[in-house]
From TrEMBL:
Pathway: Nucleotide-sugar biosynthesis; GDP-L-fucose biosynthesis via de novo pathway; GDP-L-fucose from GDP-alpha-D-mannose: step 2/2
Task of the protein: Catalyzes the two-step NADP-dependent conversion of GDP-4-dehydro-6-deoxy-D-mannose to GDP-fucose, involving an epimerase and a reductase reaction.
Native species: Halomonas rhizosphaerae
EC code: 1.1.1.271
Record's protein name: GDP-L-fucose synthase
CDD domains: GDP_FS_SDR_e
Domain NAD-dependent epimerase/dehydratase: 9-231
Family per record: Belongs to the NAD(P)-dependent epimerase/dehydratase family. Fucose synthase subfamily.
Residues reported in the UniProt entry to bind substrate: 190, 205, 212, 281
InterPro entries in UniProt: Epimerase_deHydtase (IPR001509), GDP_fucose/colitose_synth (IPR028614), NAD(P)-bd_dom_sf (IPR036291)
Length: 324
């Protein structure tokens, strides 16, 4: 392999939390030829633009990390956009990659693809065995379509398009919007601002009883590159043609109450916690079975408390972008 040309790697969504972490990981591993494009430079929902981009560049690998994402409230408020935009992004990129003869692609999905009441921990073969969680069904359907699109190009055209399904992610470059963010950035910001105001309590959505698994985005990036770089025979030995995705998580979960208590400790908030049970809880539990990924030689390394401290430091260093 010595002296072999390094592949040109297109990271779609490089400014997002996951995409930026993948770029950092690739750079740390010495991959100098990394191709990116901002939203102003390339509209991933525009089929013609995406096709032209792939025609203009000699791309060897694609990390498809671009997506419209958000928490329960955002999914409830904008279901059409979550379904349409994610379908367009993945369909345009996967098809353009095939047309440009890109052999290797990694599609990043979400653990919300699994049924609301799936047996815990959720194995890859739970896909399409039951009803989805209603609050994020459009996003989940789009991600399921992406998995099946990759599998279909593999079956029909012999491509090597792989999919990884992460659990709940958090870390640097997360979205800290007060209404449209996921639970960890929402809590970090809420507890931080309550501390600054000297509030006596912080209200947390839901009952606090649902259980969730959380993975630091740097671990997700490391897992993504690990899966992408596996030999085709090794990957195939642990997957199936019509069940090709791999779960990525820690294999450990906690209640939302426990999470809130940890965030309180990390941010230094001294007041009380109050849970608003009138707000939706989402799925009662979401824990991934990560035995397939462990068998492929990878497991998470960053603990929840260490990861939350890192995410909070990043938020403190970047507060200006979240004002207003």
């Amino acid at each position: 392999m010595t002296g072999e040309r390094k592949p040109t790697i297109f990271v779609a969504g490089h400014r997002g939390m996951v995409g930026s972490a993948i770029v950092r990981r690739l750079q740390a591993l010495g991959h100098a030829t990394i191709l990116t494009a901002t939203r102003d430079e390339l509209d991933l929902t525009d089929q013609a633009q995406v096709a032209a981009f792939f025609e203009q560049h000699a791309i060897d690998q694609v990390y498809l990390a671009a997506a419209k994402v958000g928490g329960i409230q955002a999914n409830n408020t904008y279901p059409a956009e979550f379904l349409y935009q994610n379908l367009m992004i993945e369909a345009n990129i996967i098809h353009a990659a095939h047309r440009a003869d890109v052999y290797k692609l990694l599609f990043l999905g979400s653990s919300c693809i699994y049924p609301k009441l799936a047996e815990q921990p959720m194995r890859e073969d739970a896909l399409l065995t039951g009803t989805l969680e209603p609050t994020n069904e459009p996003y989940a359907i789009a991600k399921i379509a992406g998995i099946k699109l990759c599998e279909s190009y593999n079956r029909q055209y012999g491509r090597d398009y792989r999919s990884v399904m992460p659990t709940n992610l958090y870390g640097p470059n997360d979205n800290f919007h007060p209404e449209n963010s996921h639970v960890i950035p929402a809590l970090l910001r809420r507890f931080h601002e309550a501390k600054l105001r000297g509030d006596g309590e912080v209200v947390v959505w839901g009952s606090g009883t649902p259980m969730r698994e959380f993975l630091h985005v740097d671990d997700m990036a490391a897992a993504s590159v690990h899966v992408m770089e596996l030999e085709a025979e090794t990957y195939a030995a642990h997957t199936q043609p019509m069940l090709s995705h791999i779960n990525v998580g820690t294999g450990v979960d906690c209640t939302i109450r426990e999470l809130a208590e940890t965030v309180k400790r990390v941010t230094g908030f001294k007041g009380e916690l109050r849970f608003d049970a009138s707000k939706p809880d989402g799925a009662p539990r979401k824990l991934l079975d990560v035995s397939r990924l462990k068998a492929l030689g990878w497991q998470a390394r960053i603990s929840l408390e260490d990861g939350l401290q890192d995410a909070y430091r990043w938020f403190l260093d970047n507060q200006d972008r979240f004002r207003g």
